[in-house]
Amino acid sequence: MVDVSGKDITLREATAEGVIRMSQQCFELVRSGGMKKGDVLGVARIAGIMGAKRTAELIPLCHILNLTKASVDFELMPADRDARPGIRALCTVRCSGKTGVEMEALTGVSVALLTIYDMCKAVDRSMEMEQVRLVRKSGGKSGLFERVPHVIKSM
User: Fold this and answer.
1) Range of the domain at 24
2) What is the overall mean pLDDT for the chain?
3) pLDDT of 155
4) Does residue 34 lie within any of the structural domains?
5) Could you list the active site residues?
6) How many angstroms separate the CA atoms of 106 and 39, rounded?
7) For the whole model, what pTM was predicted?
């Protein structure tokens, strides 16, 4: 592990995003709450928060952090001429600490997307997770990073 004992404690926050694309049938079942396994987005939200909180157990050499905030939000993305329907997930985490929380945000959004896949795979095994990335981070010596926003399209 990197020695962070000489660093200052600062407020650190990070947001990551990712998208899962799916069939129209699967999208409608998620939107209507008709999936057999239950409330897909509710379960995925809890799973993403749990994933963010347990990042140090999953990623080797990651520092254990005392998160003061972990949230997961979703945006339903209807099909358009360029892409199948999908769900955009955003995970935001915060703490006061000596090291950043980017990995926690990325892990949280990944676990949320994986949970959606797991709960929907009986209907659509062709789902694709894409564009998992850091959107914003603040705090620490390196300061602010913000990704230039752009429209998420299927690859």
Assistant:
1) 10-140
2) 92
3) 45
4) yes
5) 118
6) 23
7) 0.91
DSSP 98: S
Give the bridge partners for 145, in sequence order: 137
The residue with tokens 């650190």 is 12
For residue 74, what are the β-bridge partners? 89
Element (H, E) at 130: strand 128-138
Type of residue numbered 105: A
Q: What are φ and ψ of residue 35, in 5° steps?
A: -70, 135
Instruction: State the CATH number of the domain containing residue 40.
Output: 3.30.70.640
pLDDT tens column, 27-48: 999 999 999 999 999 999 999 9
76 is a domain residue: yes
Residue 32 CB-density burial (10 A; 0-12 exposed, 13-18 middle, 19+ buried): exposed
Give the total number of structural domains in the chain: 1
Q: Does some domain include residue 145?
A: no
- Beta pairing partners, 69: 94
